[in-house]
Design brief:
Length: about 550
């Protein structure tokens, strides 16, 4: 060994390590988040296996070209992996293997003749293997086998089970248990944790803002790579809305100042590409980009109008609010539906599940601000979109429509409209919520514990679950007003599950050792539980979901 290794007895490990059987260990070393060394070790005892792994680790030359040197030691972060079990996979039946193998949870090894290789569970995440086939092909290459040799009769494939720990963060003496490269610590939903989560996500999104006021679109937190090739103007406006709304919420002064400043920059960027409507100078739309001034989407203008509803923005941008409101009103057809593109798109269904709900929500906020001109348009839209969902239900439709009709309900109730006359709106809200809940993973149907609270849309529960969670929270708020105990209990339980899942998607300080730029990672909402990639609208939707939870006390108390 090049260095003397002294055991740090101040660090406490999990009780699950007091009496356990191990098969091998792996020590992984990172320097400033970059993989520096990773080696396995075996031995008659656990300490011996760790010592053997460390001995090989400090001489690992694969990643940065040379063995570890003394000057690096204080910059190195240690991870301990322990393989505790394995079971044979039936390599003749790929579909059966897929049912029993969970990418990101299970490791895998292969042996054929004298060739051997293994992957820890994290490899599927850091290498972005989204399929079992891809994992097996790359595992074969690592073992110096042909990519399909895992199928041969004499090939032995094992599913492996691991425990994973990282060294403590500053000020702690407890090793951090990890699953899917996320802290395994118990998640608690209460006002304090949700407020903290909101602040973290807001800081992360504001940290990603560029000089022109736009928010970076995609960011790979693990690889420190930005990607704005598919920058989306609607999602940019959605971020401006979420940040402006956060700035108006009662949070620590640091966060309020940060979000107010950020929202103002984002709004000024959006208004800088405002374009007069071809039909009237009293209307304007937000263009689809600096170089696409003649085209726009209803959603971009609607979300910009939403961003102007909070704090001092309604007064500062009163003229712009009126112009954007006029635009939305001008795009309503006689049947109540809304034109989604400027100029109109020949596909009448494109954008229908998103943009109209965003526009109607913006009009509801205008109504709340005291603009009476929008109420008729909102009421006229209701039958059309009510019938549309009953005919063509879609998960993507629900959030913005849910937010629209719950807010309209509250505004009308505040104006002493009888509950009986508001029943069509509450019934629609509950119909959408009940339809959506059939997709949520619960303790009874989740294939693994960390799926609970997510929604079954796609192969693995993803950040869209945050959107659906906000929808259920909003429905719970209307159920509370009507004192419908069964619905309150059902929606509350589902909302709490969804918030717990959303918190699993959030990167925290305990995972900071993985990231070259922690300020651009911590607080971010990943695309799914097997990913370390972030996108600006994932943060946007988490922020509004957290605010909805804080405004619905029964959900989080």
């Amino acid at each position: 060994m090049q260095f003397g290794v002294i055991a740090d007895t101040s660090i406490s490990l999990s009780p699950e390590l007091e009496n356990f059987q191990f098969q091998k260990t792996n020590i992984t070393l990172r320097r400033n988040s970059v993989l520096r060394a990773s080696m396995s070790g075996t031995g008659a005892t656990f300490p011996e296996a760790i010592a053997n792994a460390i001995k090989k680790c400090v001489n690992d030359k694969r990643f940065l070209g040379g063995a570890i040197v003394a000057a690096e030691l204080d910059k190195i972060h240690i991870e301990l992996w322990i393989q505790v079990d394995e079971d044979r996979l039936n390599n003749t039946n790929l579909e059966e293997m897929k049912k029993t193998f969970n990418l990101g949870i299970h490791g895998i090894d292969i042996r054929r003749n004298n060739n051997y290789a293994y992957y820890k569970p994290s490899v599927a995440i850091t290498s972005r293997f989204r399929s079992m086939e891809r994992l097996l092909e790359r595992l074969c290459r690592k073992a110096k086998l042909n990519s399909n040799e895992w199928q041969e009769n004499d090939a032995i494939l094992n599913r492996t089970h691991w425990l994973h720990y990282a060294e403590p963060i500053h000020g702690s003496t407890e090793a951090i248990p990890l699953v899917r490269l996320r802290s395994k610590n118990q998640i608690t939903v209460n006002p304090e944790t949700i407020t903290q989560a909101l602040c973290l996500t807001a800081k992360r999104l504001c940290a990603s803002q560029r000089a022109d006021g736009t928010y970076n679109y995609n960011y790979d937190a693990y690889k420190d790579v930005f990607d704005n090739e598919k920058f989306n103007m609607v999602r940019m406006a959605g971020c401006a809305y979420a940040v402006a709304r956060t700035a108006a919420y009662e949070l620590p002064q640091e966060i309020q100042t940060l979000t107010e400043t950020s929202a103002a920059k984002a709004i000024r960027f959006l208004l800088s590409i405002s374009t007069p409507s071809p039909n009237s100078n009293d209307h304007c739309f937000i263009a689809d980009g600096v170089k696409r001034r003649s085209r726009g989407k209803l959603g971009t203008s609607a979300l910009t109008l939403l961003a102007l509803q909070f704090g001092n923005f309604p007064n500062l941008f009163a003229k712009e609010r009126q112009q954007l409101s006029n635009l939305i009103l001008s795009l309503q057809r006689t049947d109540g539906s809304l034109q989604c593109f400027i100029p109109d798109n020949p596909d009448p269904n494109k954008g229908k599940n998103f943009f109209p709900g965003e526009a109607l929500l913006a009009l509801c906020y205008e109504l709340k601000q005291g603009n009476p001109d929008v109420q008729t348009a909102i009421k006229t839209a209701f039958p059309y979109y009510h019938n549309h969902f009953h005919t063509n239900p879609a998960t993507a439709f629900i959030l913005w429509q849910m937010d629209t009709w719950q807010l309209f309900y509250k505004i009308q109730a505040a104006n002493n409209i009888p509950t009986a006359l508001l029943a069509p709106y509450s019934e629609f809200i509950f119909f959408m919520a009940d339809w959506l809940l059939k997709y949520q993973y619960t303790e009874e149907n989740a294939p693994c514990e960390d799926y609970i609270g997510g929604f079954q849309v796609g192969k693995i529960p993803a950040t869209s679950s945050t959107v659906y969670t906000e929808s259920i929270i909003l429905a719970c708020g209307i159920a509370e007003r009507l004192e419908l105990k069964d619905k309150i209990n059902r929606y509350r339980q589902a909302a709490r599950r969804g918030l717990e899942f959303t918190l699993r998607l959030q990167l925290t300080e305990k995972e900071a050792f993985l990231f070259p730029q922690p300020a651009l990672a911590i607080g971010g909402i990943t695309e799914n539980i097997n990913s370390l990639k972030l996108r600006n609208d994932h943060d946007q939707h988490a922020m509004t979901a957290f605010i909805a939870a804080l405004e619905t006390p029964s959900v989080i108390n």
